[in-house]
Amino acid sequence: MERWNSGMMGWWVNGFSAPRISHPIIPEFEDYIIPLLLLLLTSIVCSGCSRLPVIEDIGKTNYTFLNQDSMQVSFPSAYKGEIVVMSFIYTHCPDICPLTTNNMQHLQDTLAVNGIKGVRFITLTFDPNRDTPHVLKQYATIRGIDFNDWDFLCGSKANTDSVLYSMDVRYFPGDSSYTKDMGLIYYITHTDKSVLIDQEGRVRGTYSGSQLDFARIVEDIKSLE
Amino acid sequence: MKAGDRKPEARKRILGLMLVLLLISASGLQYPVSGIKVESAYVRTAARGMTSAAYFEIVNSSSMPDTLYDAKADFCKMAQLHESFRESGMVGMKQVEFVVVPAKSSVEFKPGGYHVMLMNLKKDLKIGLKVKLELIFRHAGAVKVHAVVKE
User: Fold this and answer.
1) What pTM was computed for the model?
2) Over the stretch A192-206, which tens digit does the pLDDT of each residue have?
3) Is there a contact between A66 and A153 (Cβ–Cβ < 8 Å)?
4) How far apart are CA A14 and CA A141, in angstroms?
């Protein structure tokens, strides 16, 4: 106790020039200070990294899809080096999926207001049977969506399922009915999720697509820039 | 009093009754039609061949409950009453047979809840377009609704 008090007070009063009273086993406070400062510095530098842990690394996989113009797109390699916000819909959903698409449009506006540029948007359908590139283009065009930074993707069931499952998005058939001319109409029950993907193809954030927390996702995007 | 003397009196009574009925009719006291009002109606934008949804608020000012059990719209192949649900992070929807609007109360059809599902649209529903639909109530009958297309 005497040693500690004298050591501390000595440092407090005289700084590092205070006379040292050494102990054969227990190191002095001054011996801790540099490692402590290094630890503090490291934690500050890495606070940005650890704020968004890697949820899933899909950067080492690759799947081929078609975009709204029927152009082949390799996912996720085509988006390497870019921050991506990805959502999942089917165009025959009248209620929840349009909310998600709407939220993505509002997110674009919010990012622009915040001066954040270069974020790419992807919408992947889990109903590739009905959602052909042409249908996806119609769905987006009537909503005034700009395709410069937004791709609407569809692909084989195998590729779609692989990507969806890697992002923990589930879907299964819901109710169905027939129109008077016997046209089958079916709905899909699905996970309400949008994901944030970093420049290396790693999922860093997940959100409710239809009830998007705008403040949170904007902060998350900022931390990846 | 002779029998013939009663005729003018009876005529007066009949005329009076007809006048009262006419006044009631003109004043709009036609229970229960006047009890139901549909407000703030809008339809979500969607392309031809796709699916949209209609949202509104049904206000029942009468002292009797009423039941919405069908919807019609000539700009789509089929209209149904639906309800979206959310459970354990999953979302979906299901058809509902009817929706009761309690007396002196209102029911809101809104995103994520009740909506009229408009399937196989016959035309593009572009933002700003105005469309008509009919909501069919058990007591109020067919109530015409004017809705605007929104995003």
Assistant:
1) 0.76
2) 999 999 999 999 999
3) yes
4) 72
Identify any residues that bridge with A191 across adjacent strands, giving them in sequence order. Answer: B90
Model pLDDT for residues A82-125, shown as the tens digit of each residue: 999 999 999 999 899 999 999 999 999 999 999 999 999 999 99
Nearest residue of chain B to residue A169 (CA atoms): B90
Quickly list H helices, chain B. 3-26
Q: Using an 8 Å CB-CB cutoff, list chain A residues near B126.
A: 142
Residues in A 154-193 with any Cβ partner in B closer than 8 A: 170, 174-175, 177, 179-181, 183, 185, 187-193
Backbone angles phi, psi at A193, to 5 degrees: -140, 140
Nearest by CB to A142, from B86, B91, B126: name it.
Answer: B126
| Residue to substitute from A141, A142, A178, interface B, most B β-carbons within 10 A | A142
Run of H or E including B136: strand B130-137
